[in-house]
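Re: Re: ligand-bound prediction request (bumping)

Still looking for help on this. To restate: I need the protein modeled with PBG bound, output as structure tokens. Inputs repeated here so nobody has to scroll up.
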Amino acid sequence: MLDKIFRIATRQSPLALWQAQYVQQRLMTAHPGLRVELVPMVTKGDVILDTPLAKVGGKGLFVKELELAMLENRADLAVHSMKDVPVDFPEGLGLVTICEREDPRDAFVSNHYDSIDALPQGAVVGTSSLRRQCQLSARRPDLVIRSLRGNVGTRLGKLDAGEYDAIILAAAGLKRLGLEERIRFALPAEISLPAVGQGAVGIECRLDDAELIALLQALNDGDTAVCVRAERAMNTRLEGGCQVPIGSFAVLEGDQLWLRGLVGSPDGSQMITGERRGSRDQAEQMGISLAEELLENGAREILREVYQGQPPA
Ligand SMILES: NCc1[nH]cc(CCC(=O)O)c1CC(=O)O
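Reply:
Sorry for the wait, this slipped through. Here it is.
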């Protein structure tokens, strides 16, 4: 085992590299003597930067190349932001480990204003997330939402260049990159319900690689895994793989799981919300039943409009 090298396929953005190095370090700490190296790669999502993600094929763009590398045995594992991982996996691959969650909240970042409410009338806010746009506009219909793509550093650079009065980013990404001081206000879930899996890092590998799967168990965080399972079950029941304004966020209170869900229209004029509380071994069922309640309460029509004729079953 010790002469074998485990290869982590990774994107080359600073955040992706941070996450891959984090898993590399944790694996080597948990298993002294283990050899783990990074295999940096370029994905379509890194190349196409000028078009809103929803228009070019969604989140899967960031993971396809990494998955191909594992299937072709050019790499053994991939580290993902759980937020970017589509609901299903290619034959032979699967998610085997979920690490402890970082701050799951959205962060308000601005050089001039302390909060959403402090923004002047008609202020320009940068985000390309329909979920963030929906919740911002619901609270402040006067705000002008402008597209914002690129990695975390690029986005902060555009804010600093004066293109926006404020931008919204995941708190987790900023904290991991040592940029926590840029967070002016961490938005509570009541103001901006996070995306499914936000703040959590997951590890994908070949399902027949029993040796690696066993080694990875040391990195698994059971509580985070339960929360993300509930969130993803809700998303799976709602989604068809496209990008839509969906929030899904679970926390554990002792052994009680609390899951909140949101489906909204991109302009914030409609927002369907719901919640479930239950035991942690009901995570999946809670996600599915919350999704069905949201669909019945109007989410079906909203999603139908966004998908343009491809409603969930
Ligand atoms: N969509 C890109 C993406 N994927 C994961 C994170 C942040 C880290 C995380 O949520 O784990 C980000 C940046 C952002 O949304 O600001």
